[in-house]
Amino acid sequence: MQSIDTENDELFDNKTACFFTKEYHLVANDLFETISLPAKNLDQLQQQITQSFNKLKHESGAKPILIGAIPFDTSQPSSLNIYRQHTKNTARFDTEIAKIKPLEVRNKKQVVEYSYFTKMIETALDHFSQQRLDKIVISQVADFELLNQKKATDLAMTLSVQNPFAYSFVVPVDQGRYLFGASPELLLAKENLNVRSNPLAGSRPHSEDKEVNECLEEELRNSDKDLYEHKIVVDSILKNLTPWCHQLNYSKQPEILKTPTMLHLSSVFQGTLKNNQNQNDALSIALALHPTPAICGSPTHLAKDFILAHEGYDREYYAGLVGWMDAEGNGEWVVTIRCGLLNKSSIRLYAGAGIVAGSDADLEWNETEAKMQTMLNTLSGN
Asked: Does domain 9-91+104-379 fall into CATH 3.30.70.100?
């Protein structure tokens, strides 16, 4: 068996965290504390975060930042890392990127098999009539053997170069692992009193053929199934974000957001927060929107119960939140999709599809395979 390249073992030694966007590159180091309290206990979680920031405010030269992840199931422990130092610079795409050795993987092991996935869809379709469910998101997962490693900043740069319009992240989580990915979906950004959200729902594989792509875009714009799926998500964001805002605008018609492998129906929300909100930090508002129907289903509590009972594996951080927040409560949180979990010898990759009445099991499986290909392309440098 080929040995693992440990030349860049510092990925697992210094706990560096990265969050890259098309506008900026955020890198945090000098880990002060990791908060693992479940996000379900929001008041206690806010207290712990505030206490950590207050301690660091008294340290000379400290530039504290929180970068971390919340699981899909908020009753599970969080991984919120408080750092003493961070840099936030204008995004640059290093000319040395071609010299960065890509991650090498092999020996795919399907954790959720095709037959089980399609059976779940059949069960989900039955639940629509029996329990008045509108939508359920079903996911699959696969494990790969990892043949080498790289620094956190190199991995984040690779993700960012391969997916320049996504939110790329490399964040240490529990059990000595790293959560990494390139999510296209902004859950909540906050800067002072201004907030923004960009939910996605309804997808097609992205073709390299321009004419095929144009047909797929037109098909997506006119698909009753996809437009219905998208409307469910938009209605959920509108319902949960409105109480925080005294002004909120959103797209009346969805647009097409393109990634290297997918086409998505996309809507943008922009709002101004109420001045009298006592705890209107970015993470608290993001948690008020989580889980959206885009990664769970609708009604939320019934869809979540179905997922936990039938999906056949623990999502952990997949379809949760990942992002950052400063001591003033500003930050950005994205939906944890197009992602994986990495340890010293293996990686796990995830992908999901929204199931509504009329969904076809084969097409939904193909959609998850296309989404997973985003990460495989990135890891191989394609």
From this structure: no
